[in-house]
Design goal:
Low-confidence stretches: 1-5
Shape: globular
Strand order of the largest sheet: 2-9-8-7-6-3-4-5
Structural class: alpha/beta
CATH superfamily of the largest domain: Type I PLP-dependent aspartate aminotransferase-like (Major domain)
Order of helices and strands: HHHHEHHHEHEHEEHEHEHEHEHHEHEEEH
Largest sheet: 8 strands, mixed
Number of helices: 17
Number of domains: 2
Bound molecules: pyridoxal-5'-phosphate
Helix content: 40-55%
CATH architecture of the largest domain: 3-Layer(aba) Sandwich
Length: 426
């Protein structure tokens, strides 16, 4: 690249292009349209509102920018690169992830989640979105049945859609997935000769619903996996961020090894930009998943940075984050509450989550969600509308507010503005 190129802005480049070149490109794009594979057009557009310019952006589950440990990370990177391990950080590494990171994570899981796993029972992935996709690919062929919660996280839905799986939805209530409804569905699917192969669940501070899966449901789900012969994909992206209530055992630790692949991430407790997630499971299962992973291996650089940072700072930082996010949750709820008179019928319903990033609102009947969205946008408020979280595109009456990114003051204002938008729509 020349010096001149470097100083050019992207806008200049677009303006510089001749109309002829633009027309030629349009022709090429039209010509290659039939060349796309079947799954490329099947992907729905990603609903990622985290980059909107909204003043009060409660769209994406982004970590709090102010709490990112930038100085610690800068020091960690500098000392890593200056160390004897520096060259290894910049070369190809173990596809399963840096062994040192897997060792640190095994210790962390033992102390924080009471999960006993060896470093060999880890597969480090490029963010847990990547891990969820690899697990889906490993177990589901086109047309085969995978079961998800209704609502669920788009990152779990997307790979199943891409694989052209038959996606079945099981409802949630305030105690998590309705495991009784799941059992019924499993029975009828088996009777129809189309058994479910994978069940995807988010047991802690559900995204988007904010609920926890109760202990008896976790136990029953673990039993059902054996009875109906399927694999559970347990997605625990927020487990460390518990503000209140009791930590419950993971489904992974309640089921025989091999039945569950558990996914987790450093995105919410360290930095989403590092793209470090990890799967745990039986070694034999992880070997199959590893062979499917075509990413050139987990990054030796970010894995080493993460390992060093976790060793030095994890416990203290997570304790700090718990306090920060609890206050944010409370500020958002206080803002919303302040916008409604006691007992007012327009007040949406919500469950107060014991942790995580999200508040899930159910609008009262007769309030048009599209009008609420527009009224909120006019006030500078962005959030994700409910249908993004339902495999069949239903759920218009819901909306998800992420409290993670905004300051407490902004959350109080944003909550009040959402209430105003609901009043205006009504
Ligand atoms: C439930 C759940 N799982 C997985 C992820 C993916 O996180 P990442 O790919 O950054 O690890 C998220 C992020 O929003 C999430 O909410």
């Amino acid at each position: 690249m020349t010096t001149m190129d470097r100083t050019r802005t992207p806008e200049t480049r677009v303006i510089d292009r001749s109309q002829h070149a633009a027309a030629e490109q349009a022709d090429v794009i039209a010509a290659i349209e039939p060349l796309f594979s079947r799954i490329a057009p099947a992907l729905p557009p990603v609903q990622f509102t985290g980059t909107t310019g909204a003043r009060y952006n409660m769209g994406a589950g982004q970590p709090d920018p102010a709490s990112l440990p930038r100085r610690e990370l800068a020091e960690t990177v500098a000392s890593l690169l200056a160390s004897d391990d520096g060259p290894a950080a910049l070369m190809y590494g173990d596809a399963a992830g840096f062994l040192g990171l897997r060792e640190v994570l095994a210790e962390k899981l033992k102390h924080w989640d009471h999960i006993e796993v060896t470093p060999e029972e880890f597969l480090v992935v490029n963010g847990s979105n990547h891990g969820l996709a690899v697990v889906a690919q490993a177990f589901v062929n086109p047309g085969e049945v995978a079961i998800v919660e209704s609502p669920t996280f788009m990152g779990g839905l997307r790979p199943l859609r891409q694989l052209q799986a038959r996606i079945e939805m099981v409802p949630l209530d305030e105690h998590g997935m309705r495991v009784d409804a799941l059992e019924e569905r499993l029975r009828s699917l088996r009777a129809a000769g189309t058994p479910a192969k994978l069940v995807y669940t988010i047991p802690n501070f559900h995204n988007p619903a904010g609920v926890d899966l109760s202990l008896d449901r976790r136990q029953r789900l673990a039993e059902l996996a054996g009875e109906f012969d399927f694999v559970i994909l347990e997605d625990d992206a927020y487990g460390e961020l518990r503000f209140s209530g009791e930590s419950l055992p993971s489904i992974f630790s309640l089921a025989p090894r091999g039945r569950v692949v558990r996914s987790a991430t450093l995105s919410k407790i360290l930095a989403a930009g590092l793209r470090v997630g990890y799967l745990i499971g039986a070694q034999e299962v992880l070997a199959r998943l590893n062979a499917l992973k075509l990413d050139g291996g987990a990054s030796p650089f970010t894995n080493r940075v993460a390992a060093r940072w976790l060793t030095a700072h994890h416990d203290e930082h997570v304790r700090r984050l718990i306090d920060i996010y609890r206050r944010k949750r409370d500020a958002l709820i206080a803002g919303l509450e302040s916008g409604f008179a006691p007992g007012e019928s327009l007040k949406p319903q919500w469950h107060v989550p014991d942790g995580g990033f999200f508040l899930w609102l159910k609008l009262p009947e007769g309030v048009d969600p599209t009008t609420v969205s527009r009224a909120a946008a006019n006030r500078g408020v962005a959030y994700v509308p409910g249908p993004a979280f339902f495999a069949d595109g239903s759920g218009q009456e819901y909306l998800r507010l992420a409290w993670s990114m905004l300051s407490e003051d902004d959350l109080r204002t944003a909550g009040r503005l959402v209430a105003e938008a609901i009043h205006e729509a009504a």
